[in-house]
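Quick one, T. Sequence first:
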Amino acid sequence: MAKYPNTSEDRIPQILDAGVLQLLEQQSSGKFPPGSEWQYSNSGYAVLAMVVEKVSGKPFGQFLHDRIFAPLQMNNTVAYEKGKNEVPHRAYGHTKEKDSWRETDQSPTSAVLGDGGIYSSIEDLTKWDRALRRHTLLTAAEMRPALTAVKPTAHPANSNGKPISYGFGWFLDQYHGHKRMSHNGETIGFLTTIQRFPDDDLTIIVLENRTDKDPEQQALKVADLYLK
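Structure tokens:
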């Protein structure tokens, strides 16, 4: 779907990762005592990006390029920063309204890189998935914490009432008896999912630039065909 020029989204003021930290600094308390509960946090990923910058001495986008994208030859993947780089041949997000489509591509948080702002392709994400599988980027021991669920006193539940298990960046559960690590993404005009079944050598990735579909449902239909 082509970009419509001069849309209002082009002029939306956007917050950066440092701005997220400034908002957090204004808070007087957390939602619950550390270790007592768990809740998904986009803000936490923004802070984590700033930790990476501090330790590496590089801007987060540059670190991602040097440490992940370039070594894996993910040539069509970029941490987008307006005025610093471009995303050639990119798709733009769209929302269906009655019988027409409206471009809904940028929100006030679209420029935060810790929890998003990465533009990629199916081909490049396949390279990333292969690197995870072959431990090209991280050894099995280094990857283990990402696959170890947190153990708070109170576990949140999903819409089906099942407890949520979450590692470092991955939801962890079983699907019809098959070990699964997965994650969905959602932002204005975009929906995504990655469903990995490590014991079955199966990964399914769906990228949508429209909001009227269910990527996870689509991915699991493919998984059903394979896992049978």
